[in-house]
Amino acid sequence: MSTARGRSLVIESPGQHRLVQREIPVPGPGEVLVRVAAAGICMSDREVYDGHRDAAYVRYPVVPGHEWSGTVEAVGAGVDPALVGRRTVAEGFRACGVCERCRCGETSLCTGGYAETGFTEPGAFADHLTVPARLLHPLDDDADLRAAALLEPSAVIAAAMRAARPRPGERIAVVGAGTLGLLAVQLLSAASPAELAVIDPRVARGEQALGFGASECHSPEEAEALHGRFDLVVETAGAPSTAASSCLLARRGGRVVLTGMFTPGAIGIDPVHLSLSQLEIRSVFGASSAAWSDAVRAFGLGLLDPAPLITHEFPLERFGEAIALVGGGDPKTGKVLLRP
User: Fold this and answer.
1) Does the domain at residues 5-150+306-338 carry the CATH identifier 3.90.180.10?
2) More exposed terminus of the chain, fewer Cβ within 10 Å: N or C?
3) Domain 155-283's class?
């Protein structure tokens, strides 16, 4: 057994973390060992650290890190040795692969029980992690691993695109200009919309969205004049009011896709408006294997470039500073990375 040691950032319990030295794990049958290049911190990680994540979706102590990229260093029994040296990302959900939903290709709806890298399984806030080889999505040899760490949120947006079915010439709105919103703008702009509006109270984020392909940006107050205008509305903010307000932006017979993570007490969707307007509403939680493939393909083609979203990078030793930035309210803070 290997005696080499690596570092892992462990959240023992809410508000308590420490950097530990552990033996580098040995990949078991069907697994690969990945050396982490970069790992993104998102609001879900902040919720884990603060103790605000639903208890059914986290298991303490935990090594967080579900947004990551790296290079395969070793493979376990039954895994193609040609993967060694490949740059890669991997799906986070440990879908069972045999339940009805998995067999239908809806791996993000697996009924085999919740398990996800960085929440119930050791994640990428570490020098190394092991993952099932079947979850890998290998990248091009020259792929930018710094940018590739954002392919997990990109896969969520790719899942939203599958649900949204954008068509050329449509009027489209994106509610929220955070990481998910700006990634959505990139993919939606590739669909040749007639209009691509972004709704966000932060002026700087709206301006950034224009650079990513949006045709206009509005504050939530200004957007009230646009109610009933859009064929498609993609909600990415997860704010208490944005599910309801997104439905008001859609035209009668329009489509609304909700990707934000809402908390209890959020404003509900008016069922009278919903039925009279004949809206089609879909929600997205995570991403299926197919959506991951879409995101990786778009990244390889250059249709998706997450690199401009990254504003801060920290070593593992400065995790405390990094997590404080996430959700801290500074509009200049975009995606925060850990670089083991």
Assistant:
1) yes
2) N
3) alpha beta
